[in-house]
Amino acid sequence: MSDTHYDLITVGGGLGGAALASVMSRAGARVLVLERSRDFKDRVRGEVLVPWGCAEVDKLGLFDALRDDLGHPLRYWAVDLGGVPAVRRDLVADSDLGLPVITFFHPDMQCLMLDRAIADGAEVRRGATVVDVTPGQTPAVRFEQDGQARDATARLVVGADGRGSSLRRWGGFAVQTDPERRAFAGVLLDDMPAPDDTMHSRFSPSEGRMSWLFPQGNDRVRAYVGFDSRSSDEPLSGKRGLARFIETSVALGVPKEYFDGCRPAGPLATFDATDNWVEHPYRDGVALIGDAATTSDPTWGQGMSLTARDVRVLSESLLGHESWDVAGHAFAEEHDRGYAACHQCDNWYTDLLLEPGPEADARRSVALPRILEDPTRLPDTPISGPDQPVDDSTRRRLFGLD
Ligand SMILES: Cc1cc2nc3c(=O)[nH]c(=O)nc-3n(C[C@H](O)[C@H](O)[C@H](O)COP(=O)(O)OP(=O)(O)OC[C@H]3O[C@@H](n4cnc5c(N)ncnc54)[C@H](O)[C@@H]3O)c2cc1C
User: SS3 helix, strand, coil % of the chain, rounded to 5?
Assistant: First the structure.
């Protein structure tokens, strides 16, 4: 076999590509990871791994390193509705998984995962940009590194190239998208004295706005504001944007004194939060995982957990089937099932807590009093994962229709 033929090539070395490389290399596969960045900067990406994502990363054999080397645990989840404290949940005591949320700085997580992939035997090339992929029985990859064009082939090429995935196009995958409704802006703040054991979400449903605070320890906090992108709100970025970000957060109930001495530790950026996805993300020697397969609304913090689940489902399928074509199709089916449950549940939460307008207000006037009386009406999918029931009776209980 030639030097440039691999069992698996991953396009992208984020959580998806790096974790898959680790698991498959450990199982004896020859794996090449092609990652275009040499160094990782704050891109305002996921830094909160919810409990079901922690459990998925644990199944990949990567959780201990993530928690012990980088992770900051958040045991409590506080929710305010319309300025009033509504729920304070102990995630460890009050969930089947018994796990907290873990926060970390995303660039450090990416370095850790790539280091683990190398230690597990993968070949990792940083500063290698994939410029073309030809699907087929032996898919081929063209990439550029140090000004030179290079070629490699594999049994399977995996598109782990994130929310702007080119593999979707090169692989001939059709992309589905929800109607546009939400935008999500985030910034990392230092010297912010928010309680460091609690993630705090504040919703103003009639305005369609919300804020999240995710402490990372040592008074560092990843802060977000979500808003209805169909309203007149402009994207938040730069210095002026930061002043508006803080104003909006304070209007949502974040104590003003949290911001008094704080300073940004990275860029403020706004993202379109509309879900877009590929149905059945495998064809012709190319599989898509993570954001390349499914870019989910970051408001609900499911992206890295879905990515870790893709890595587990794909690796189990590859290791369990002689034919990787059969394995690819089996992965795609199970991927679709998991994403459908998360997607449905996220949309219900958005309808309930973030859709402005009289119809949504009427829905809330029925549902919210019943939820406050009995919080088990809230489907637990965002915390416990897609194996929770998500069906018509779940919807009826959430909206107080039963
Ligand atoms: C604002 C925001 C907040 C979020 N918050 C959360 C959260 O709280 N919790 C959560 O679970 N998720 C969150 N997410 C989602 C989370 O960041 C993603 O789901 C996760 O990073 C996906 O991992 P990935 O490996 O699929 O893609 P990425 O992390 O995007 O990695 C893709 C990699 O591919 C590389 N690449 C791309 N193209 C090429 C190419 N042509 N050649 C070589 N390399 C290439 C890129 O450089 C990158 O390193 C958030 C997302 C956003 C935008």
Answer: 40, 30, 35
Residue 154: count of CB within 10 angstroms of its CB: 25
Number of H helices, E strands in the chain: 12, 22
Residue 357: other Cβ atoms inside 10 A = 11
Q: In this structure, what token pair is assigned to residue 227?
A: 């808003």
Length of the chain: 402
Which SS3 state, helix, strand or coil, does residue 3 take?
A: coil
Q: 5-11 and 31-35 as β-strands: parallel, antiparallel, unpaired?
A: parallel
The token duo for 320 is: 């369990």
Q: 97 alpha carbon to ligand 1 midpoint, in Å?
A: 25
Reading the block at residue 363, the tokens are: 């829905």
Read off the tokens for 25: 């290399």
Reduced to 3 states (helix: H, G, I; strand: E, B; else coil), residue 130 is strand
Cα–Cα distance, 311 to 230 (Å, whole number): 34
- What are the beta bridge partners of residue 270? 185
Whether 37 is in the pocket of ligand 1, judged by its Cβ within 6 Å, is yes
Q: Report the alpha-carbon distance of residue 250 to residue 240 in Å, rounded.
A: 16
Distance 44 CA to ligand 1 centre (A): 9
What count of other Cβ atoms lies within 10 Å of the Cβ of residue 69? Answer: 12
How many Cα neighbours within 13 Å face the side chain of 138?
A: 8
Atom of ligand 1 nearest to the CA of 167: 41
**Cβ 384 vs Cβ 51: under 8 Å:** yes
* Dihedral of the alpha carbons of 282, 283, 286, 292, in degrees to the nearest 10: -50
Rounded to the nearest angstrom, the distance between the alpha carbon of 309 and the centre of ligand 1 is 14
Q: What is the mean pLDDT of each run of 10 residues along the chain (402 residues)?
A: 90 98 98 97 94 98 96 96 92 93 97 98 98 98 97 98 97 97 96 97 95 97 95 78 95 96 95 97 98 98 98 98 98 98 97 95 95 92 95 96 92
Full-model pTM: 0.97
Is the CB–ligand 1 distance for residue 11 below 6 Å?
A: yes
The reply to whether ligand 1 has any atom less than 6 angstroms from the CB of 186 is: yes
Cβ(167)–Cβ(179) under 8 Å? no
Q: How far is CA 183 from CA 76, 90, 126, 233, 353, in A?
A: 26, 29, 31, 9, 15
Rounded CA-CA distance 255/350 in Å is 24
Contact present, 355 and 22 (Cβ < 8 Å): no
* Angle at 250 (CA atoms; ends 248, 252), nearest 5 degrees: 70
364 Cα: distance to centroid of ligand 1 (angstroms)? 33
